[in-house]
Amino acid sequence: MRFRRAQSRRSAERYSALKGIQDILPPDIYIWQRVEETAREIFSAYGFQELRAPIIEATEIFIRSIGETTDIVEKEMYTFSDKAGRSITLRPEGTAPVVRCYVENHLYNLPSPQKFFYSGPMFRYERPQAGRFRQFFQIGVEAFGTSDPKLDAEIFSMLRLFIERLGLKGLNFEVNSIGCEKCRPDYRKALLNFFSGRINGLCPDCKRRYEYNPLRILDCKVDVCIELRKGAPRVMDFLCNECREHFNALLSLLKLLNVPYVINPDMVRGLDYYTRTTFEVTSEQLGAQNAVAAGGRYDRLVEEFGGPPTPAIGFAIGMERLVALLRTPTLNQVQGELRTPAPEIFIATIGAPAEKEGLVIANRLREKGIWVEVGYAGNSLKSQLRRADRLSAGYVLIIGDDEISSGKLKWKRLSDGSQGEILFQEVYDFFFKNLRLIQS
RNA sequence: GUGAGUGUAGCUCAAUGGUUAGAGCACUGGACUGUGGCUCCAGGUGUUGGGGGUUCAAGUCCCCUCACUCACCCCA
User: Fold this and answer.
1) Residue A53 sits in which domain range?
2) How many domains does chain A have?
3) CB of A138 lies under 7 Å from some atom of strand B
4) pLDDT for A261-270, tens place per residue?
5) pTM of the predicted model as reported, rounded to 2 decimal places
6) Which bases of strand B have any atom within 7 Å of the beta carbon of a protein residue?
7) Is the CB of A4 under 7 A from strand B?
8) Is residue A202 part of a domain?
9) I need a surface site. Which of A143, A166, A219, A293 has the fewest CB within 10 A?
10) A281, A304, A335: which is the final residue of a domain?
11) Secondary structure of chain A in HEC code, one letter for each residue
């Protein structure tokens, strides 16, 4: 006996979700749903259509797009062999699968530009911390087929509208241009040249960065590096004429649309495929992982995947980070809308006949789409009312032997304690008039 | 992969190395035989994350280990 209990206790405590992977439960899920609904609404208005790409792909797809020497590819991918020995990877980001889908389905034959959005989980094998998880959800958009800066402006302003529509204030919207395959090598060279004399003063990480990704030194948080990079050449000064024109056109369009922005010439993107426009939405409230959304142009990627030369641009929003901000009262202007929904009616019963009657009434109301809860397991009337109160139910219906014999049941409104009686068969009419009409 | 911090009841947390490890919240019942919120009362079989050590004595000190958290790296 003692042995059996010990064993069952152990097995009950054995399982927990994998490290960095979390459950999303009802109080939060309503925030998630509101974010998703808002995204659908706003993105649709800009002509973006939903697309669902798989969450696993051939490993090669991510190596080709993200870049062989990036941290994501080198050490963060969930990669495994399937039963036929093919190398499969859980997507660490959303753009590559969408580009593969675009090319494979010849979507470039449809009128350009084509605009898509998607949402779903991404996977990276990283050490979790605030705002960083091994499974994390993104809502992303990708638009293909034009390099017109008007599209960049639309996407940036769409992101801004989305954030504002959710009720968030005080976020930073930053934009930059990192040039194209023509002008970036010149800039890289200038940067290497600038740092070559100061390399000994840099932090150990930046010494490595100097070798494989010198742009990243601009992003370093260490004081000595911040000091040493003063006077470093700016990307902006190395843009080719086309890139400069494109960037200037974007900025003037943002002004035209009254979309506020800050130029951040030090902004660097982690993925190799970005060209020209890059942008980021950040918040100081998020901890070290401060980006809630980020994106940019990737004008060469479709071609890289075997499609026709097709300029493209997109961004991704980190769901968990966005939800964290929505839970921060100082940033969220519409807290009230985040309330958890509550049952409209709770049916409390006393005795077996009343319990049956209550269940019948509950079902009749539920068929009309009204959320009805009932008392279970013969709890006392008091405890049923307490539960109704805890659920924040609108009304309680009370049914006992007295009500069955009189044919009338009692109703009680929990917000003010008012009570009354109604005939059993008039329950639906009563609530249609008093509950539904009041609410709408 | 690196570093730091924290692990005590379902939750949030107490407990100068010294009796039988406590409190609030939550939950259930009662006071109020059929009326929630307020009040009062009652209800706990906790491997003090796990293992080892020091000690007459360890939740407390030491070592190992695991988990979580934050930060670095990197990124949404």
Assistant:
1) 19-183+239-335
2) 2
3) yes
4) 999 988 888 7
5) 0.89
6) 1-3, 27-30, 32, 34-37, 45, 47, 67-76
7) no
8) no
9) A219
10) A335
11) CHHHHHHHHHHHCCCCCCCCCCCCCHHHHHHHHHHHHHHHHHHHHCCCEECCCCCEEEHHHHHHHHCCCCHHHHHHCEEEECCCCCEEEECCCCHHHHHHHHHHCCHHHCCCCEEEEEEEEEECCCCCECCECCEEEEEEEEEECCCCHHHHHHHHHHHHHHHHHCCECCCEEEEEECCCCCCHHHHHHHHHHHHHCCHHHCCHHHHHHHHHCHHHHHHCCCHHHHHHCCCCCCHHHHCCHHHHHHHHHHHHHHHHCCCCCEECCCCCCCCCCCEEEEEEEECHHHCCCCEEEEEEECCCHHHHCCCCCCCEEEEEEEHHHHHHHHCCCCCECCHHHHCCCCCCEEEEECCHHHHHHHHHHHHHHHHCCCCEEECCCCCCHHHHHHHHHHCCCCEEEEECHHHHHHCEEEEEECCCCCEEEEEHHHHHHHHHHHHHHHHC
